[in-house]
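USER: For my understanding, would you kindly supply a protein sequence with its structure tokens?

ASSISTANT:
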Amino acid sequence: MIQVFDEAPNGLQPAPHDPRMLAAGHQVAVREINFRDVHDKESLMLAFLRGLGLSQTFGRNWDALYDVLTDPESRPAKSAVLLCSYASFRKKHPHLSADLERVMLDAQATAAEAGRSLWLLLEEPDSDTRHW
């Protein structure tokens, strides 16, 4: 069975079950971005600021986000961004998510050209949870 971290990053991919444990076994640093409370570009940038542990000087624009995702000084050579509750965000905000995906996929391609790996993993809440 092929595991996501055994292959090169390839666009937005479904997160494996227990991605943090699998990532640790492959020396992949994982940062989590939660889209549950994202409703505009400002709250999107704040979600990345918090999730990536950025300083308040983060520019909060597409170029700044690209720079952060591709910066070899601040990002490990093998890293994954876990996009939590992204499907719902994408449905509610198609234009904003299209802009974000363009930036993330460009960053992923730039990382690959530099011999680095940037996985973009989609993690959704369990839809089959039991209701008691």
Q: What stands out?
A: The two ends are 34 Å apart (CA to CA). Confidence is low (pLDDT under 50) at residues 127-132. The chain is about 40% helix and 15% strand. The beta strands are 12-14, 29-34, 78-84, 117-123.
